[in-house]
Write a structure and sequence with these properties.
Trafficking protein particle complex subunit 13-like; 351 residues; five-stranded antiparallel beta sheet; TRAPPC13_M; TRAPPC13; single chain
Length: 351
């Protein structure tokens, strides 16, 4: 890190490697998990700055949450010093979450400066936890506890552990529930492929399924309970959703590689789309920019193969796609779509 010109001066003394640095788009986090992040603001100049205010907000599809531990400004920050903060948030919504870190400060000349950084993560899978309690005065045998998904979802039960090609219940071999005891059953739901891209179909409140519970009392009498349809609030993707269908993990330096993008019209109107490709410092698009994609009906999708190359080694972010709806003259920007690892295919011979 000390020899890397793109690294902040003195960062190697903080022992912050790439594994502890957030990329612009850092993958998925699951519903119900707690998102935690360590934020460090480092003064890499040779001057003291004053009135430093660090603010961390989490933007979801429905609200903006302030996660900063303190909203008061720090009086001064000396050269090579840091302001550190740790934030936490329990994820309760589906869809894209954007962590917005904003820093404002005043220089020695009295100039007020400000900058922001954005980090995204996506929540696609839904985890459903069901707590079942025996409120009778005698033990009962739990014959069946299952989640029957709706037509839009596939479900995976997470109540067993596989070992030596055998599946064993997490509750043990004897499935008895003692009086006043409680069990927690966990299920993972994923939208079916035919519905996953149809944001117009699964947006808003959607039905995910119902629980089916079957038990027997100590006298062998059978009981059954089926819940009403369970609902959840599905994520919104805006007017146009861009996703990747195909992208390589590793590519060679300065050699073209192909990706396939899928564009979905999530609005209720027909769009006439134009695609513009903007180069970045490290990633360069190959082909004609500004080409017409034609009309796209509501809830319809279009797959587009694209070619690009990278002139810089390392983990590079794919950015610079712009979609313009020529009907409304509205442009949608897509940056940090994905990352690829760029390696040099040539090695210098040892002398």
């Amino acid at each position: 890190m000390k020899d890397d010109p793109s690294t902040v001066k003195g960062a190697e003394t903080l022992i912050l490697g790439e594994m502890l640095t957030l990329p612009q788009n850092f993958g998925n986090i699951f519903l119900g998990e707690t998102f935690s992040s360590y934020i460090s603001v480092h003064n890499d100049s040779n001057q003291i700055v004053k009135d430093i205010l660090v603010k961390a907000d989490l933007q979801t599809s429905s609200q903006r949450l302030n996660l900063s531990a303190s909203n008061s400004a720090v009086s001064e920050l000396k050269p090579e010093c840091c302001i550190d903060d740790v934030i936490h948030h329990e994820v309760k919504e589906i869809g894209t979450h954007i962590l917005v870190c904003a820093v404002s400060y005043t220089t020695q000349m009295g100039e007020k400066l400000y900058f922001r950084k954005f980090f995204k993560f996506q929540t696609d899978e839904v985890f459903l936890e069901a707590q079942i309690q025996n409120i009778t005065t005698s033990p009962m045998f739990m014959e069946k506890v299952s989640l029957e998904p709706s037509m839009m979802y596939n479900v995976t039960e997470l109540n067993s552990v596989s070992s030596d090609n055998e599946s064993e219940s997490t509750f043990g071999k004897m499935s008895y529930l003692q009086p006043l005891d409680t069990r927690q059953y966990l299920y993972c739901l994923k939208p079916k492929p035919e519905f996953a891209e149809k944001a117009g179909v699964i947006k808003g409140v959607t039905v995910i399924g119902k629980l089916d519970i079957v038990w027997k009392t100590n006298l062998g009498e059978r009981g059954r309970l089926q819940t009403s349809q369970l609902q959840r609030m599905a994520p919104g993707y805006g007017d146009v959703r861009l996703s990747l269908e195909l992208i390589p993990d590793t590519v060679s330096l300065e050699e073209p590689f192909d990706i396939t993008c899928k564009i979905t019209n999530c609005s209720e109107r027909t769009m006439d789309l134009e695609l513009e490709m903007c180069n970045t410092r490290s990633v360069h698009w190959c082909g004609v920019s500004g080409r017409q994609l034609g009309k796209l009906s509501p809830n319809a999708s279009l797959s587009i193969p694209l070619t690009l190359l990278s002139s810089v080694q390392g983990l590079q972010s794919i950015s610079g796609l712009r979609l313009t709806d020529t009907f409304l003259k509205r442009t949608y920007e897509y940056d940090d779509i994905a990352q690829v690892c760029v390696v040099c295919p040539y090695t210098s011979p040892e002398s």
